[in-house]
Design a protein that fits this description.
CATH architecture of the domain at 2-215: Orthogonal Bundle
Radius of gyration: 22 Å
Shape: globular
Structural class: mainly alpha
Helix content: 40-55%
Distance between the termini: 61 Å
Strand order of the largest sheet: 5-9-6
Strand content: 5-15%
Length: 390
């Protein structure tokens, strides 16, 4: 066994398969993709990578398998899937995920194409593991797939603790040791054993607090929206999507600085757009909260025309309506498997909090923020009090 020192889990022991997979180019690339992408513009110490996160997920998966008494070939496939679950991410992780999906039709957890005829696939097959089976587990298929991608997955357990550790924000700290020990299977579904409603609530609460404080911080949202627009223009300028997807963070930043300098250099130097509009869910017409990609670009063009500014000076950021995936976690209560949302009064309160924290953003360079704010109020039919110029 190979031991790796980790900042969160202390020593992580890699089995021979994992040790070989770590040395593949596909996995080594994760050293150069930050776990929190543009969040590090807010929290300077958030420089951890998807490489170390993937090792952490492998470690927790190994512990969970042991507690669940799953071994042999089945466990070997799960450990490999846990280690490889993030190799499908593009540069800046989730910040470019929608763009990649629009261009390729694939999500980051669809990794079959990265296991076919690659060094990763060769390692798996050499050790008697099926690449297609590993890919299915990464996608969350089957009972063991829930360990890697589901409401109670070890991916979430690691990133909450790791992100809290590296940002210095304590709200993501959870008792991942208890969570892993209390996992059970009931009728093929992953559940938490009797007496663990509060354990499940802690996971839910940690995610909700980290959302508002870290993951959806307005500076990170602005930088992320700028990054996505700049990346779209990079692809429109002729960069092949296949090359884009395999970039690391620094590759993309260099390319943007050279080929989309007005946005790329702003991101690099943290000279970001400012909020012109910052509107709550109750202040925004329903049709605005449901804007798709094409409709959002159309609205940006309309706001720019009304404000008489260049189109690239307007970015509309309409996030999906809030939802709490963890509320569907299953817990055993009085011998019966129940959804957490049915067993906990806390879920309703957190749903209300998520709704109250939702914001529609319209961003623009500071020099034209007032003009863009006035135009956005007119085009989007939102009240003037939601502008950031008053």
């Amino acid at each position: 066994m190979t031991a790796v020192k980790d900042s969160v889990h202390d020593y992580i022991s890699l089995d021979p398969v994992a040790a070989e997979l770590v040395d593949t180019p596909e996995f080594q690339r994760l050293r150069h993709i930050k776990q929190l992408s543009t969040v590090r513009l807010v929290y300077p110490s958030a420089s951890h990578t998807r490489f170390e996160h993937s090792l952490g997920v492998y470690h927790l998966a190994s512990q969970a398998l042991s507690h669940l008494d799953i071994g042999g070939d089945r466990a070997a496939h799960v450990r490999a899937a846990a280690l490889l679950h993030d190799i499908g991410h593009g540069p800046y992780g989730h910040q470019t995920e929608d763009l990649i999906r629009r261009r390729t039709g694939r999500d980051h957890d669809e990794i079959g194409h990265l296991l076919d005829g690659t060094r990763v696939g060769d390692v798996l097959e050499t050790h008697g593991l099926s690449p297609s089976r590993v890919a299915d587990i990464v996608a969350g298929e089957g009972p063991v797939g829930q360990l890697v991608s589901g409401e109670l997955d070890v991916d979430r357990m690691d990133y909450l603790v790791r992100d809290a550790h590296h940002t210095g924000v304590p709200y993501g700290t959870i008792d991942h040791g208890r969570l892993v020990r209390e996992l059970r299977y009931r009728d093929g579904k992953l559940v938490l054993a009797e007496g663990n409603v509060q354990t499940a609530e802690s996971l839910l609460l940690a995610r909700a607090l980290m959302n508002g404080t870290v993951y959806r911080h307005h500076v990170s949202r602005i930088a992320g929206a700028m990054l996505e627009r700049a990346s779209e223009r990079l692809l429109e300028d002729g960069l092949p999507i296949g090359e884009f997807v395999r970039m690391a963070d620094h590759d993309l930043l260099v390319a943007l600085g050279e080929r989309v300098p007005e946005l790329g250099r702003r991101i690099e130097s943290r000279n970001l757009y400012k909020r012109a509009v910052w509107a709550s869910l109750d202040s925004v017409p329903t049709d605005v909260t449901e804007l798709d990609y094409e409709a959002t670009r159309s609205v940006e063009r309309e706001i720019a025309a009304v404000a008489d500014v260049p189109q690239e000076s307007v970015i509309v950021d309409a996030p999906p309506r809030p939802r709490i995936k963890e509320s569907r976690s299953r817990v055993v209560v009085d011998g019966v498997v129940r959804r957490l949302e049915d067993a906990s009064e806390l879920v309703g309160a957190l749903r209300s909090a998520e709704r109250s924290q939702w914001r529609l953003g319209v961003y623009a360079p500071e020099a034209v923020r007032d003009e863009v704010a006035a135009a956005a109020v007119d085009v989007l039919d939102v009240p003037i009090h939601v502008t950031m110029t008053r």
